[in-house]
Amino acid sequence: MMRKMLALAWLNGLQLLRNPGELVGVIILPLALTMLFGSAFSGGEGDAMRVLFVDDDDSVYSAQVGTLLDAEESFETSAVSRSQAEELIASGSDGVAVLVPDGFEAGLKGEGAVIQVLRDPTSESAFAVISVVQGIAMRMSGNAQTAEVVVRMAPPGSADFDEVYEAANAKWDPRPPVYAEGQTVVASDVRGDTVMAEGATLSSIGFTVWFILFMTFGSAGGILEEREQGTLRRLLVAPLARGTLLGGKVLGIVMAASVQALILVAVGALVFGVPWGRDPVATGLVLGAYILAGTGLAVLVTALVRTRDQLSGLSPLISTGLAMLGGCLWPIEVVPPFMQAIARLTPTGWAVVGLTDVVARNQGLDAALLPAAVLLGFAAVSLGVGITLLKFE
User: Fold this and answer.
1) How far apart are CA 129 and CA 138, in angstroms?
2) Which residue ranges make up each domain of the chain?
3) Which residues, including other chains, have CB under 8 Å from residue 185's CB and lie 6 or more apart?
């Protein structure tokens, strides 16, 4: 029996491969869109912004400004003279320069020092440099004031400004005494923490869930094609039980969707670094349950339409609508609560919730159990109704 079902499933796959239009729609297009949006959202760091650095003071303290500036990962500092910096900015070759003027050390130890920022008035990126320079100025000011107070209060000759300054400066590494930490807080009842899938992870999860539906509908279309050609009617007189025939057709849809899921997951993991492999068991459980749910939906719709052309026209509407409602194209947490409630009525919504908890939030197997159970329930109902209504002639 199993051998016959596998043979029927293999035949279903061959039918899919023989149709170039279906092949493009269910395999080539998903890969192309995943690559396109994955590249757009993969969070590439891009080229570092070049910042000119002018040190006219040539002191330990002016050198510290350059060191702290260079420590900013988004900057690439280049040491130049003031005349070179002014010429490069005036010509439009560079947009911003940081200048430590002569007398900086004396001012730091005396009445106050200044760090100058030279910029092209049309350069918007200069504001990022100004913000970093302000942070450097605050750090050095705190160190200098600490050193000044200690030297003033200590017995004469017992404290050295440079030594106290260095000791105060050491307190900033590896993190400052007081630092700000941003956290994303969203209005959502999703299990786990509040981390949302972003960038390539959001894209990879969303497109995988979305296009599994396309594959199940495309593969289920083979049933209608065989019915139109009379093949199904001939199979009924073959030495095959109805259950074996139906099982083979359903298995073929499941196998085709599983292959596509593996391809999309592999592309997301290997090309864009999406952490699909954090918990393979939990990921496989959610994906497997969702593939069965998508298969059930495809079989149900196939049973309700009359021709393959009708299915081809209806399946993109159903797949895209469910993808939008389920959060495949944007984080479901950002939509209003009533839309989040609607998402819980769709198989795509539960698949996105489960995969987000497992892949993006690393919540493990426990987070996969409820979505998988709901999806399996949906699969049982839709498959049961679909198989009951499916006509072979």
Assistant:
1) 14
2) 2-42+192-389, 49-170
3) 194
Residue 194, token pair as written in the block? 């509040």
Residue 200: per-residue pLDDT: 76
H or E element, residue 70: helix 60-70
Q: Residue 72: count other Cβ atoms within 10 Å of its Cβ.
A: 18
Q: Which of 128, 123, 127, 116 is nearest to 57 (CA)?
A: 116
Backbone phi, psi, residue 115, to 5°: -115, 125
Beta strands 49-55 and 116-119: pairing type? Answer: unpaired
What does the buried/exposed string (b/e) look like for 323-350 if buried means 16 or more CB atoms within 10 Å of the residue's CB?
bbbbbbbebbbebeeeebeebeebbbbb
Dihedral sign (CA 276, 280, 282, 287): positive
Number of Cβ within a 10 Å radius of residue 254: 20
| 80 contacts: CB under 8 Å, gap ≥ 6 | 52, 53, 54, 88, 97
DSSP string, 261-314: HHHHHHHHHHHH---TTS-HHHHHHHHHHHHHHHHHHHHHHHHH-SSHHHHHHH
How distant, in Å, are the alpha carbons of 28, 63, 105, 138 from that of 141? Answer: 59, 15, 12, 5
CATH class of the region 49-170: alpha beta
How big is the CA angle at 229 (ends 291 and 306), to the nearest 5 degrees? 60
Query: What angle is formed at CA 287 by the lines to CA 269 and CA 198, rounded to 5 degrees?
Result: 45
pTM of the model: 0.59
pLDDT, tens only, 130-168? 989 999 999 999 999 999 999 889 888 888 999 999 999
CA gap 355, 287 in Å, rounded: 8
Contact criterion met (CB below 8 Å) for 106 and 125: no
